[in-house]
Amino acid sequence: MLSIKRVPTVVSNYQEGCGRNCLGKCCLLGAKFPRYTYRGEKGRKYVENDGLSDRTGEMSLFDTLLMGEWEDRMSRGLFRYDVTACETKVIPGKYGFIAQLNEGRHLKKRPTEFRVDRVLQPFDPSKFNFTRVGQEEVLFRFEEDTGSEDHHAIQFFLNPHVSASASPSVIAINVSPIEYGHVLLIPRIFDCLPQKMDKQSLLLALHMAAEAANPFFRVGYNSLGAFATINHLHFQAYYFNMPFPVEKVPTRRLSGKSKNGVEVHELLNYPVRGLVFQGGDTLQNICNQVSLCCIYLQENNVPFNLLISDSGKRVFLFPQCYAEKQALGGVSQELLETQVNPAVWEISGHMVLKRKQDYEDASEEYAWKLLAEVSLSQERFEEVKSSVMEAAFGDSDDTLAIEASEETESMCLLKEVAANGVPGMASDEKGCLVHQ
């Protein structure tokens, strides 16, 4: 068994168990939570855009509710620190990695043994799970409207009763936030699902991104072995008012499309090798292909991170191996001392640093060096890429010819970096073992 001493982030004020008003059977009787219902697939074609480009800054109902409820919890003192006071800067360099100094995020944590050699692990009710969070930490339920004849309707119910038998999906605060509006999406919370991706849950997360209709609202997922700290199915999301570095890098398209028009691209010249899914007429289309890839990875014991961007129109998939390298002693002491666990946000280019000196010294060379340790080697990535493409599209590797994407400002950046280089940015090509 491979394990490392881990100190999970505190995500609830009731991390040690029920204080009062939790979501367990002991406290649930009579509980009421606001309920937001979104339109189903029959009422949405996301290529039509939900009005982002036409609303001239008007906020969606989802945005308004989430921000209002999140700020209400902040005013009530439910967060462990004021994340809006955390220093943030863009690291000088061509990629624009973002550094945040968040000294409060690592305080008052519980040491634990964290197994990293198994992506799929059974749910353990004796350990912290989201049924223990305080009811005041829940913002609202988030569910598809299946009962309305008007599939275009978005509805908000203020105080409906909640039933454990219904197992609602809920949006709750993360009491140790990384950024403004940092929340957790917990699908079918009372089913006590382990951190295991499935098509239904991914579609729920895509709808969450689409309902926000805000380009600065991103949704992320970490598998076990890729720095998920709680084995209870959940996604994370927050607002950040500028593009992530990974959203700006050039890609090249892998030829061949699924029947529903979803394209797959490969990231170019980014420290973490990954795939980008885009296209298709509906959220269901892109969900089908991405979920098949995720299911293949977890069933074959490959840790991964997922970033949902552009209101659900683009999904980034990163197979990774940093935790395993760390457990095997393959990460330098210099990187370990920073205590940075490179999960989805760090991989996307938002580096959450816990020590002031690291923040002051943050450089593009450091960011690249850290993220290069996350990535699979080129050889291993090619193997994984071929397998997930076959799982999702039925294509084998020798049919995946690469088509050059159109030259963009990002491609010009790629050429400049290729010509001039960036000192110290050499990735580790030794590869990673994945124990099966």
Strand content: 15-25%
Stretches with pLDDT under 50, minimum 5 residues: 46-56, 108-112, 396-436
Structural class: alpha+beta
Number of DSSP helices? 10
Rg value: 21 Å
Helix content estimate: 10-25%
Strand tally is 18
Strand order of the largest sheet: 7-2-6-8-9-11-10-15-16-14-13-12-18
User: Which overall shape is indicated by the principal axes computed on the Cα atoms?
Assistant: globular
Molecular structure report:
- This protein is an alpha+beta fold and 436 residues long.
- The protein is built from 10 helices and 18 strands.
- The strands form 3 sheets. The protein has a 13-stranded mixed beta sheet. It has a 3-stranded mixed beta sheet with strand order 3-4-17. Strands 1-5 form a two-stranded antiparallel sheet.
- Mean pLDDT is 82; it is low at 46-56, 108-112 and 396-436.
List keywords for this structure.
436 residues; 10 helices; 18 strands; 24% helix; alpha+beta; 13-stranded mixed β-sheet; disordered C terminus
Quickly describe the structure:
The chain has ten helices and 18 strands. It has 436 residues and is α+β, with helices and mostly antiparallel strands.
List the topology elements.
Layout: E1 3-6, E2 35-38, H1 61-75, E3 88-90, E4 98-101, E5 112-115, E6 138-144, E7 155-157, E8 170-173, E9 183-186, H2 199-212, E10 217-222, E11 235-239, E12 251-254, E13 262-267, E14 275-279, H3 283-299, E15 304-309, E16 314-319, H4 322-327, H5 333-337, H6 344-347, E17 350-353, H7 356-361, H8 364-374, H9 378-393, E18 402-403, H10 409-420
